[in-house]
Each structure stands twice: as C-alpha cells, then as structure tokens.
Amino acid sequence: MSLHSMTRRRPLTALAAAAALALTLSACSPGSTTASQDADNVPSAAATGLPSSHIHGLSVNGETDQVLLATHEGLFDVTKSPATQIGDTNDLMGFTAAGDNGVFYASGHPGPGSDLPNPMGLIKSVDGGKTWEQLSRQGESDFHALAATKSGIVAYDGTLQTSPDGKTWSAASTEFVPAVLAGTPETDTVLATTREGLQRSTDGGKTWELNTTAPIIQFATFAGGTEVVGIEPDGSVHYSADAGSTWSRTGQIEGKVQAVTAVKQTEGKPWIWAATTEGLVLSSDAGATFRPADTN
Q1: Which of 35-44, 49-58, 230-239 has the lowest mean pLDDT?
Q2: Are residues 121 and 141 in contact, defined by beta-carbon separation less than 8 angstroms?
Q3: Which of 79, 117, 220, 239 is the most buried (most CB within 10 A)?
Q4: Number of alpha helices (DSSP H) and beta strands (DSSP E) in the chain
Q5: Which residues are CB-contacts of 90 (< 8 A; sequence separation ≥ 6)?
Q6: Which of 58, 96, 271 is nearest to 181 (CA)?
Q7: Above 60 in pLDDT, residue 158?
Q8: Domains detected in the chain
Q9: Would you say residue 22 has pLDDT above 90?
Q10: How far is CA 152 from the centre of its chain?
Q11: Average pLDDT in the chain
Q12: What pLDDT shows up at residue 197?
C-alpha cells in the first residue's frame, strides 16, 4: 500500500507514525548495522543505567520475575543491579522466548572470540541463554525479527519465513518488511508491525491480512494467548484483548522505546516492561502510567 492510498484511510497522525516507522525500518534492514549504531542521539549505556545502549530484545519470566535484555554485547540479567552477563558476547539482533521458561531463540552476529559462523542463523538455548545450539541457516541468515508460535517459528532475514522446528524453512508469500514480529506459543496468531500498518496472521505466519483499523505501531508483544500490547513510534501505548483485532489507547512511554515485553497477570491487565533511552520502565496498569523498574 502506498502512502498516497493511506491518506484516504488514515488520519495525519497515523501518517506521521508511518513515516517514523519507515525511518526505523530503513535503519535496521537485514545486512545493515543496527539502528542504534546508526543513530547519533542514542545515549550511552551509562546514561540509561542499562548494560548496553543497543537493546534488541526484552524478556521477563512470569514465574521468577527475572528480566533479561538481548543486546549488541550479549544477553544480560538486569533483575538486580549491577547487571550480570549470561553466556557469550554475541550480537543478538533477533531474540524471542519460547513456551518453556529459559528457552530462547536468537540470531545475529558472533562476538569477539566466538566460534559461531557469521551470521549466526537461528540458534536456540534451553538453559536461559548460557549455551546455544546451532539449528539452521548458519552463515546465511541474520534474523532481525523472530516470533515463536504454537506451530513453530516465524522469522525475517530479508524474506519472511516459517519453520515447524527451526531447521526446515518455507517462504511466506508477503512483500511487507516487519519491524517486529510478535507471537505466542499458545496460539498461531502472529502480528507484524510495518510501515503500512499492522499485519496479522492466524495460521502461524503462512498468510497475512492488513488490519486497517489498527494503529500504526512499531513494537508489539503478546501477554498470553489473546492480550497484546502495541507501541507507536512516538511512545503511545495501545492494548488489545482479542489478539490484535481491536485496540484501545492506554497511555504514553517517555523516551525512545528499543524493546518491550508484557506478562499476563492472574487478575487485571498485563504488566509492561520497556527498555527506553531513559532506562528500563515498568507499567502495572496496562500502560496508563510507567515508573522506573526497580533492579536493586
């Protein structure tokens, strides 16, 4: 869909969001350096209180409240301060949690001293990121976007692909470029944030449909089977209770968001964590308000 055709569907604010998202996509396309590396206004790790200024992924264990950041310098546990590095110093460009706690998929580039190929292809950890197994496409794919679903993996390395086991792949018939892929191991619904708007799949990423009524969001994350949180490029927070079909605005995040995750609660709406240029922040009211996350 062209920006010209979008003017007949979306208000001016949505066009501004699309333009901002387009800049983000161009900065982090596969084969380029990271958006954080290209940006001149990204604060240092010391300024944010985070272990790296290049945050590529965020995961929170709903049972233990362990908070992990996937970064340009590797995986860090930031549950307490100071942060603790886990495993090797690899550039984890793509990162997603699987169904079991401590199981992660990742992609990117090997760090200093690593014997992994470049790019790393799809790798998997079953011990919380301490060690990684090479699954497929080593030396071929740098997956900047990854999502785990009930039926497998959805990933983007310049081509959107699906895999039932992380080893064999099939290309999806799509032309959009996702900034983020969001899924949950509980269902086969997958969301892709794009400059044209929110793409939605209900068959594990094989087929897609543009949700023309959704906000143009840059980050999306599932909290359980149907609850989703979405963040616009300007930090506006949205909540969906029906797996991304309909949305309501809840609040605003200050600072530029780099990664976001949400955790389902037994009562009430999900808690939201976001890594921003202001540091790590937390919302316990579905995004209405945010406060600095306590990592002491």
Answers
A1: 35-44
A2: yes
A3: 220
A4: 4, 24
A5: 74, 106, 108, 109, 110, 111, 114, 116, 120, 132
A6: 96
A7: yes
A8: 3-288 (2.130.10.10)
A9: no
A10: 17
A11: 88
A12: 98
Give, in order, the Cα–Cα distances in Å from 48 to each of 44, 159, 204, 240, 288.
Answer: 7, 33, 36, 29, 22
Nearest by Cα to 229 from 290, 172, 174, 177? 290
The two three-digit tokens of residue 188, written as one number: 């086969």
**Which residue type is seen at 98?**
A
What whole-number distance in Å separates Cα of residue 182 and Cα of residue 175?
18
> What's the chain's length in residues?
296
* Residues 59-78: tens digit of each pLDDT: 999 889 999 999 999 999 99
Structure-block tokens of residue 78: 């930031």
* Residues 143/27/252/154 CA torsion (nearest 10 deg): -20
Cβ neighbours of residue 280 under 8 Å, at least 6 residues apart? 49, 50, 67, 69, 78, 273, 274, 292, 293, 295
Residue 115: per-residue pLDDT = 87
Place of tokens 């942060």: 83
Whether 88 and 95 have beta carbons less than 8 Å apart is answered as no
Q: Is the pLDDT of residue 209 over 50?
A: yes
At 26 the pLDDT is 42
Q: What is the pTM of this model?
A: 0.87
Give the closest residue to 281 by CA, choosing from 131, 58, 9, 117: 58
